[in-house]
Amino acid sequence: MKIFPRFIAGVFLSTALWAMPSDYCPQPPWCSTDWSLLSPGERTVCSDEILSIEDNLLSSIYRHLQFYPSIDVDALRLEEKAWLRRRNRIADRDELMLFYLERIRVLAERLARARRMR
Q1: Smallest Cα–Cα separation from 88: which of 76, 78, 100, 77?
Q2: Residue 98's domain spans which residues?
Q3: Is residue 30 included in any domain, yes or no?
Q4: Distance CA 84, CA 86 (A)
Q5: Per-residue pLDDT tens over the stretch 22-56
Q6: Long-range contact list for 14-22, CB < 8 A, 24+ apart?
Q7: Is residue 34 part of a domain?
Q8: What is the number of structural domains in the chain?
Q9: What is the CA radius of gyration of the chain?
Q10: Nearest-CA neighbor of 45 among 108, 102, 90?
Q11: What is the value of pTM for the model shown?
C-alpha cells in the first residue's frame, strides 16, 4: 500500500520539477513561520519535499476553483478549513500523502466539472 502513493508522488514530483524553473522552492510559504507554532501535520509537510509539492498543487487547484461561478466559494472555504484541521492532526508521512492525494483528486474533479459548465 505504501508503494502506490510513493509512485504517484514520484510522478507528480518528476512532472512538477521538469516544468519548474531551477530556482523553484517547493516548500509552501507558510513553512517559513516559527516551527514551534506549526502543527504536527504542518511540520511533516514542511520537512518533506513531495508533501510540500502536493501542498502547492492543492493550493493552486483551490485558488483556481474560486474563479468559477458554479462554485460556492463560502462552502468551499468552510470545507477547506475542516480539511486543514484534520490535516494538522496527522503526523505520519504516508497517511498525509494519501490524505493529500485524495483531496487533490476531489478538488481536481470539481475543477474539471466547473470548467465543463462554463
Answers
A1: 100
A2: 40-117
A3: no
A4: 5
A5: 445 577 877 877 888 999 999 999 999 999 999 99
A6: 16/53, 16/57
A7: no
A8: 1
A9: 15
A10: 90
A11: 0.76
